Amino acid sequence: MPQPYASAVLNASADDVWAYLRDFGNLAEWMPGVQTGMIEDGGPADRIGCVRRLIGPGDSVFRERLSTLDDAGRGYAYEILECPLPVRDARGRIRVAPVTETGQAFVEWSGEFTADAADREAMEKTFAKGIYATGLGALRKRFG
Fold first, then answer.
1. What's the CATH code of the domain at 86?
2. How far is CA 106 from CA 75, 98, 109, 130, in A?
3. Which Pfam families does the record associate with it (predicted)?
4. pTM of the full predicted structure?
5. CB pairs under 8 A, 24+ apart, for 32-38?
6. In this structure, what DSSP letter does residue 59 have?
7. Percent helix, strand and coil across the chain, each to the nearest 5
8. Which residue range is the domain that position 114 belongs to?
9. Residues 75/59, Cβ–Cβ less than 8 Å
10. How many domains does the chain have?
11. DSSP 8-state assignment for residue 31
12. Rounded distance between C-alpha atoms, residue 112 and residue 116, angstroms
């Protein structure tokens, strides 16, 4: 099972970065390519089980369900319920940790999925570089 991964160091405290990222509904604010995002039932974006609906390039629809939210560990996990990519059983995780020497934030975005053999390598690159690394780069700029 492919396990795409990306990480970055941001020039902000782990607490500040986590305070922003823990909002499962705000992905459209910071993720390049996401045009709109909302929590489907209008409920709170930190409720386990809430589903965010994202509209991406070419009006593509992504639906993701929050499966865990860990404030003490500064992280959350989600399941991808619907997406236009040729993957199945896809899950992702975001975690924020302090860089104790500098006071910066270390952010990891990782996932796993199942795909047909012909799609596996391309999808691993798409997630690791096209989604995770791109998103972390946008966060780096946001927290300048």
1. 3.30.530.20
2. 12, 6, 10, 19
3. Polyketide_cyc2 (PF10604)
4. 0.94
5. 32/134, 32/135, 32/138, 33/57, 33/134
6. G
7. 30, 40, 35
8. 5-142
9. no
10. 1
11. S
12. 14
